[in-house]
Design brief:
Layout: E1 2-5, E2 8-9, E3 18-19, E4 21-26, E5 29-35, H1 36-42, E6 47-50, E7 55-58, E8 60-65, H2 82-87, H3 97-110, E9 113-118, H4 128-142, E10 145-152, H5 165-170, H6 174-181, H7 190-203, E11 210-216, H8 224-237, E12 240-245, H9 249-258, H10 263-269, E13 276-281, H11 287-296, E14 299-302, H12 304-309, H13 317-323, E15 327-329, H14 342-351, H15 363-371, H16 373-378, E16 395-398, H17 401-404, H18 414-421, E17 427-432, E18 435-439, H19 448-461, H20 467-484
Parallel strand pairs: 1-6, 2-7, 8-9, 9-10, 10-11, 12-13, 13-14, 14-15
Antiparallel strand pairs: 1-4, 2-3, 4-5, 7-16, 16-17, 17-18
Helix pairs in contact: 3-4, 3-19, 6-20, 14-15, 15-18
């Protein structure tokens, strides 16, 4: 039993601020909340952790990221249009998934993230199950709560349908064509994907911090039949579906060709939404798409830094707010400042949504909800996103000195001020399932320096391909740029 005492507590986005509060944690759950003196008297034998004047909040939820502990800038990829940027990965070898995911998890913990959705991702090593299990092991070892999306794709690996891939390849050099032919499958076939899910659900049944979802890559990457099968299995197992949606102009053009009645309406006809669903990006959503998302109850995970950096433009957050769509937040491992500071990413999102909010919703309220309550919906989590008796003891503490600075007007709401000024480096405590995983800039159960060295080693190793391979990947990337900057196809 542990009593955590703090100067202030905000239990959820719509809750009033409490001063001089404390939280009792027993067996990984919040047992009680109340004035510190009262709880001290009621639980005299409990251990106490006094956080001084800090602010206690529910832990943040990063609802869309890929376990990339080193950013694309660190790995040598400049920001670019999405499709050429993806193609450049062909010029590198497959890194150690465990090392990169473990570093990503530690960085998130240090920035106040207590739970994440690990979106579908593959380094195309040819052994997707081994990659996925390495990521699972990294989350288990660090203690970060994670919903792990098992990826799937069966088309559009080079160019999106219905464009003629053979014609595109024929325009490339022999070396580039050879690199494409040598590519290994990123994901498993459909039946093997279902089998993998069955095995993982059995192996990790009842795990305190790990759960699973399906991660079909996105409409342009997944056939109709696969959507039907994955959604049916997800519904039978009570799992969610998480996918990329309308991220780039090229994906929007593809959707207009493939789904003239609207991409979400098409997925609805396939039975996709018999399971819970969330989608990332949604940058190029039409009014019809937004209305469909609201009607279907789909949680949208916005990734504004990534969207701006990869040339996709700002997400339509005003329109999403006006339509009443559930909006969560994700870093996509590509935040505007090239870090895992989810608080800073929330501020960018807020700057893009000044007109769409209801009159009684402040920036602080919607931002905290996006990173907590809405995040639980997007990441298919139960019992998280708030500090209340019976809820998971996933919480963080922020040092308020940087937020308050030299002066903070007494009439300024603490939540609004915190969301407007706090940074990830202000986090002094991160607790998941009642375990302290980060405290006063230290990881009690992990060696950050060792994790960084391991990520560095695998980054160097992935560069071992020859210059001819890198040149071929660059050729493919530039060919894709030309292909997708032709006049818009309708």
């Amino acid at each position: 039993m542990l009593i955590i005492e703090a100067g202030h507590l905000i239990a959820h986005a719509a809750a009033p601020q409490q001063s001089g509060a404390a939280v009792v944690v027993i067996d990984g759950l919040v047992h009680a909340i109340g004035p510190r003196a009262e709880l001290r008297a009621h639980y005299p034998l409990a251990r106490r952790l006094d956080l001084g004047g800090s602010l206690l909040l529910p832990g943040l939820i990063n609802a869309h990221q890929h376990g990339r502990g080193l950013s694309q800038i660190q790995l040598g990829y400049p920001d670019d249009q999405l499709e050429p940027w993806i193609a450049r990965r062909r010029g590198r070898g497959a890194p150690d998934t465990y090392a990169l995911t473990r570093l990503a998890a530690l960085r998130m913990l240090a920035n106040g993230v207590t739970a994440t959705l690990h979106a579908n991702y593959s380094y195309a090593s040819g052994d997707y199950e081994a990659e996925l299990r390495a990521a699972i092991r990294a989350y288990a070892d660090t203690g970060l709560r994670a919903t792990i999306a098992i990826g799937y794709a069966d088309r559009g690996a080079l160019i999106y349908p219905p464009d003629d891939e053979a014609a595109f390849v024929s325009m490339l050099s022999a070396k580039a064509r050879e690199l494409i032919r040598a590519g290994r499958p990123a994901y498993l076939p459909l039946t093997e994907t279902l089998d993998l899910m069955a095995r993982l659900c059995a192996e990790y049944a009842g795990h305190p911090t790990l759960s699973f979802a399906y991660g079909p890559a996105g409409p342009q990457w997944v056939s109709d039949e696969a959507w039907r099968v994955l959604a049916g299995d997800a519904a039978r197992r009570g799992l969610g579906l998480h996918f990329h949606l309308l991220e780039s102009p090229a994906q929007a053009a593809c959707a207009r060709q493939l789904y003239p009645s609207g991409v979400l309406a098409h997925l609805e006809r396939l039975g996709v939404f018999q399971a819970a669903a969330s989608a990332a990006h949604f940058v190029h959503a039409t009014e019809r798409d937004i209305a469909d998302a609201a009607r279907l109850g789909i949680a949208i995970v916005t990734n504004p830094g990534s969207n701006m950096r990869l040339g996709n433009g700002p997400p339509p957050l005003d329109a999403l707010h006006r339509a009443g769509v559930c909006i969560a937040i994700g870093s996509d491992n590509c935040t505007l400042q090239d870090d895992e500071d989810l608080l800073a990413e929330l501020r960018l999102a807020d700057a893009l949504t000044r007109r769409g909010r209801a009159d009684d919703v402040t920036g602080g309220m919607w931002m905290l909800d996006a990173a907590t309550g809405a995040g639980t919906q997007a990441a298919f989590l139960n019992g998280a996103g708030a500090i209340a008796p019976g809820m998971k003891a996933d919480l963080i503490a922020l040092d308020l000195d940087p937020t308050q600075g030299a002066f903070l007007d007494p009439d300024m709401g603490l939540l609004d001020a915190t969301m407007a000024r706090a940074k990830g480096r202000d986090v002094t405590l991160t607790m998941v399932a009642g375990r302290i995983l980060y405290h006063q800039a230290k990881f009690p159960g992990a060696d950050l320096a060792q994790a960084r060295r391991a990520a560095c080693r695998t980054a160097y190793a992935s560069r071992s391909v020859g210059p001819d391979t890198q040149a071929a990947a660059e050729e493919i990337a530039e060919a894709l740029r030309r292909h997708y900057t032709q006049p818009v196809r309708t």
